[in-house]
Amino acid sequence: MKKFFHIFLIFCLPVLALSVTLELLLRNIPNGYELKSDYLKTNKKSIKTLLVGSSHILYGINPKFLKEKALNYGNVSQTIDIDYQIINQHINNLEALETIVIRLSYTTLFEQLVNGDESWRIKDYELYTDINLGQSFKYHFEILSVKLKNNLKRINDFYILNQNSELVTTEGWGTDTNRESSQNIDTVGKLIAEKHTTNDDAIYVENYRTLDAIVDLCNDNEVKVILVTMPAYKSYVQHLNQNQLELTTSAGEFMENNYSNCSYFNFLTDNRFTRSDFLDADHLNSQGAEKFSKLIDRLINK
Amino acid sequence: MLFNSLDFTVFLPIVFVLYWFVFNKNLKQQNSLIVVASYFFYAWWDWRFLSLIFLSTLVDYIVGININKNENLHIRKQFLWLSIVVNLGMLGVFKYFNFFIENFSLAFSFLGLDLGSYTLNIILPVGISFYTFQTLSYTLDIYKRKLEPTKEFIVFAAFVSFFPQLVAGPIERAKHLLPQFLAKRKFEYHKATDGLRQILWGLFKKMVIADNCAVFADEFFKNHAEYSGSTLLIGAFFFTIQIYADFSGYSDIAIGTSRLFGFDLMKNFAFPYFSRNIREFWRRWHISLTSWFKDYFYIPIGGSKGSKWMQLRNTFLIFLVIGFWHGAHWKFIVYGFINALHFVPGILRGKSDKYEHFVAHNKWLPSVKELFNMLKTFAFLVLIRVFFRADNLTDALSYLSTIFSKSIFDIPVFPNRFLAFIVFVLISIFMTVEWFGRNNEYAIEKILFKLNRPGRFMCYYMILFCMFYFYAKQQQFIYFQF
Predict the structure, then answer these.
(1) With a threshold of 0.90, does the pTM exceed it?
(2) Are strands A262-266 and A99-103 parallel, antiparallel or unpaired?
(3) Which of A98, A186, A235, B71 has the lowest tally of Cβ within 10 angstroms?
(4) Which residues in B lie closer than 8 A to residue A1 (C-beta atoms)?
């Protein structure tokens, strides 16, 4: 038995040492989650607007163009249940908070990060923010959450090539320069729309309740809620399932009608946004983000 | 709990340490620990179905004792039937109920009678097809006076629920496994290291080969209408490799884990894709199941004895039952039927085409004839696996008709060409290792013994690296659904 443990330990030591080294290297790579979490803590007395949602918000609203101090707490694949966790955790600490902008996209009521292909992103909340999603043990480690191949690429990009694709501005706006170009925007729209179309009634009901809980929570704390359906390119819009879209927009309208603190704005087919404003079929580029941020600013200050 | 999960990585060392360091002084305590750990292992998936395992255990424990103590054949038979009814009844309700209702309803609809639809929303309890067969073999052996029943309930409960093989086998015989629970276990260094090596190889098969093949097989079978015949043929090839790597990988992990606890489980796979005909394939594929059916079904109904007609009948019966064991779908019955068809010429000719030795016996490479036979058998398996993987019979036929269309000459299309290339390379390496290790219990059992310890460690590190580097999306083991 002694021999077995002795040899097993010798075998495991290099693996453990390598694992710890990888974990430390990965955790030292600056990332948007940590920056946003820190910004929120250090500016909790002055933040007046909080923006939450997925990559649509992350890349679509640049707080630089908002008059009041704001933080973009949008992250790639961030779903409404996580928006709720963020708001619930911080609403009492943000003393100056007046408005929360939430994306109500085509997918908002039909997806949850924990159930999707991007569930590995849960580790970013568990590791770099004070939001506890109560998920599996593995999400408390970089090396257990993400494929080794991707982790090695991140280490190579950051430490060898001095690149970091996960950067955001101080106020949380996504500045990822490695995102796909809009070359195939006409053809890719259909594919993305199909990918975003689901018919999971159970998730819809759950997310609807979560959205209601968010608006209700904000109402209790006298915080204004602006629900926005972000602009998207026509190749994407044309292929959306009308039923799913209808359920989304009617949820926004319901919240607006039932809560005095809530307004809903649908920019999905807004013709002020043209092809040059889009990075891909459903994301704005920096020019589009500037345009949209100014629009949102007017709504906040209305 | 999946073998390829973090949960199991934590669970296994804890049970191992408790087993050898805390409960090692007393056999009863060790067996009790196995029962508790096994129930915990199963409850991780769904605790509600523990009641079925417990019911099966309790019934067969009581039945076993009563069959043994009664000399009256009538009473013995009654107890045997009780065991059969309870075990097959559970299977019938949870696995086959909807199938029979739907098909009765359909049959009556042809006669103009509408019986309506009374199907139930039933979850198939993981492992039910495995542990019910294991407990059945116990009572059948006692009935045939081939085995003495155990009076120790904990021992029997450990035999039924032993976690390494609880959910997907190998389906053990009481004669082989039960005495191991009654004997004092001693930690053996070589057995334990061999177990770890087999676990490592099983994980490699599952995580690197099976899960990466699944990426393509899933896509091609799901959207088969969008792909050409050549692409679908490759999809069927990927699935053929996937199911072998997946299930034999599971068996390797199960056997390896058992060895860590001092147990020897039966071999479940013997390099079946190097078989020279279908008969040989079935002697090497899912051995614990095929031998179960052979001993408790095929031989009792006459086996290969009797007239040609009887042999044909028995062959078709066993393959239809094996097909149906896999699931309540017509596609599995057709799968069994096609396999049985393959035996017809041999039975009619009166020739069994049995091979005494494994392919390329005492040689490095096969002869041209052997190679041709292996490829022919493998090609046949690739095609009939379509019935196994497709969602239903209609999809399977549609899939096969595309393969046999003109589009078989099109250039195959892959969603991710680079990954497809990598997977082909990995499969080639995997099959090469399997070929050179084909005379072992598992491929890498002795293959690395020529190296010194640092050399062997380097090989293990490489396997570990591959497991994490080529790790695809975690998939459930295919045989969990059976």
Answers:
(1) no
(2) unpaired
(3) B71
(4) 20, 187, 189
Which of B102-111, B263-272, B466-475 bottoms out in mean pLDDT, i.e. has the lowest?
B102-111
Rounded Cα gap, residues A166 and A176, in angstroms: 6
Interface contact A148-B468, CB threshold 8 A: yes
Q: Does the ipTM exceed 0.85?
A: no
B187 neighbors B398 (Cβ within 8 angstroms): no
CATH number at residue A122: 3.40.50.1110
Rounded Cα distance between B107 and B87, Å, is 27
Three-state secondary structure call for residue A267: coil
Provide the shortest C-alpha distance from residue A101 to chain B (in Å): 34
Give the DSSP letter string of A166-232. T-B-TT--B--TTSPPSTTHHHHHHHHHHHH----HHHHHHHHHHHHHHHHHHHHTT-EEEEEEPP-
B263 vs B102, more confident: B263
Full residue range of the structural domain in which residue A80 is found: 2-300
Number of domains present in the structure of chain A: 1
Q: What is the pLDDT of residues B160-189, one digit of tens each?
A: 999 999 888 799 999 999 999 999 988 999
**Is-catalytic flag, B326?**
yes
- Sequence-distant (6+) residues with CB within 8 A of B293 are B318, B321, B322, B325
Can you tell me the mean pLDDT for B400-408?
92
Q: Which two tokens stand for residue B213?
A: 């093949």
